[in-house]
Amino acid sequence: MKVPLRELPLKRSFALSADFVDGLVAGLPMRKALGSEASQAGEGTAELEFYMEGDNVFARGSLDAWVELACSRCLGNLRHSIQEELMVTYLPGGQVPNEDGLEADEEDTDEGDAVDTYGYEGEEIDVEPLLRERVLLSVPYAPLCKPDCLGLCSKCGANRNDSECGCDRKVLDPRLAALKDIKV
Ligand SMILES: [Zn+2]
Ligand SMILES: [Zn+2]
């Protein structure tokens, strides 16, 4: 996933292969939770336009990918899609400003419109660290197969999206059980 500086400016697309995505998400809890249910981890494409100004290289474009994860409620498979704008500055010699360096406002780094900064060494730009990071950051902490997923029955383990098992779950949650005893 490298771009030689001498070819700039240029526009290029990068394929995120199934193996690449698999390597990225293999260790994530919501991927591991799939166990033997796991199939292809995902794939994607990034389109980037590069140009130089002085020694700095600017890249803009988009990332379009998907990853297969387990639903955090019912543990069923889901396809999480990733669509992101990319806006990156590459500085020469790996000179990346530290946290309290150039960026005056640290709040910026959380915003979608913030410019990412990476370093580059030698005569080429490697976009792999950027794509790795973007895919990983876009994976939700608690993904859902659908917004109103009913999850698994806490008593018998049945998938409540498929059928209601009829278990009495009212007193199972100790926090709720405690609330029930409070006299108002
Ligand atoms: Zn679910
Ligand atoms: Zn049940």
β-strand amount: 25-35%
- Number of domain units: 2
Q: Assign the structural class, choosing from mainly alpha, mainly beta, alpha/beta, alpha+beta, or little secondary structure.
A: alpha+beta
Helix content: 10-25%
- Helix-strand sequence: EEHHEEEEEHH
Radius of gyration: 22 Å
C-alpha end-to-end distance: 63 Å
Tally of strands:
7
Biggest sheet: strands side by side, in what order? 2-3-4-5-6
Output mean pLDDT. 87
General shape: elongated
* H/I helix tally: 4
Q: Which small molecules are bound?
A: zinc ion
Major sheet description: 5 strands, mixed
Would you identify the regions where 5 or more consecutive residues have pLDDT less than 50? 103-110
